[in-house]
Amino acid sequence: MTISRKILYLLLAMAALLFLPWLGGYFFYNGEFPADFYAYPPLKPISKPGFNLPIFAFVAIVCLGITAIYIMPKWFGFKKTIIENTRNIPRVKLPIWFWFGLICWAISLTFLALHLKQPAWFIHWSDVPLFWGAVLVLDGIVYKRTGGKSLVAIIPQELIGIGIASMTGWMIFEFMNFFVDDNWYYPWGNILDREEFLLYAFIISSGLLPLAFEWYLLFLTFPKLANRFRNGVKIVLSNGLKNGILIISLASMFAAGLFPNYLFFVLWVSPPVVLGIVLNKIGIWTPFDPIAKGNWAPVLLSALTYLVAGFTLEGQNYLSAIHDGQTALFTNDPAYWQYSIPFVNVAHIFEMPVLGYFGYLPFGVYCWVWWIACATLLNIPAKFLKENPLDI
């Protein structure tokens, strides 16, 4: 396959993530979106169907099944992998960027958690040092546990590239959020002008995807976790089945815009599947590929990254506001978010409904395949085109 054709297929796949939900929404609104439909940031929740016990129970059963894969992998055909610890890891100190990141993260979180009002310029933009401070802290821990190997130490240019790709990778979700009637919104987003908030959103989102990669590398430093899912069921999909899954995934993204209250979750599940299949078809490695050899570790661990990262982000988000019970009364953080999710919007941990955390699992995989897609388009020799980019 020629390079130009590979680029074309990737661009079409990326365009589909934007166009198909828009097309579904176009039909949903009979060709005329409401006047404030694209207002960003969304400041208020849109009315949604209330709690539904049968739907909640069904989703909960699915989530329990997913949880069981991580807790009891042998139930799903995973065999125990013998771990031979023959490596002598050099003892190194925590690097200087760990301490710099810790200071940035701690100061930002302190200002937000104490709900300070001054200096306003710092508080309003504090998510930048908060997110990137966490990235540097995680990288420093990886550096120490591997004896001197980390993204900052070995391939800082790739970490920067992931950060740049993160801005478009996340803003796609902000765009898709319009077509599921704003599942999340920013009730204090009007602290900033809309133009400034848009710039702010681009900049702070640069720290979102790097968190996934840092957590993944940290997971690899724990041999039992890193090897827990390497010896599982081998699944090889035929081209016909891949095509079928791709068509269903694309159709579901269109349907999500058409039925936003019932298929809103599709916008988390389908993007990594669409990108993963298209990348596979043009001959580019993805974390899905090792499944053919029974190695599920790249997919399951990359999914786990944002279950952990998402939980910490939700905690930081919750601390940044003053609450009366579950009601947020005040915050100085313009990016403070809340959720408006149909049917299952109960049993919150922080602002997120408990079942909503499982949406972070496909997003973790999306982070990896999005970076692979961007690196392929730009002909970047990315190290993350294999399971263990640092040979930990």
From TrEMBL:
Parts of the chain that traverse the membrane: 7-29, 49-73, 94-116, 122-143, 150-173, 197-219, 240-259, 265-284, 296-313, 360-380
Name of the featured protein: Small-conductance mechanosensitive channel
Superkingdom field: Bacteria
Keywords: Membrane, Transmembrane, Transmembrane helix
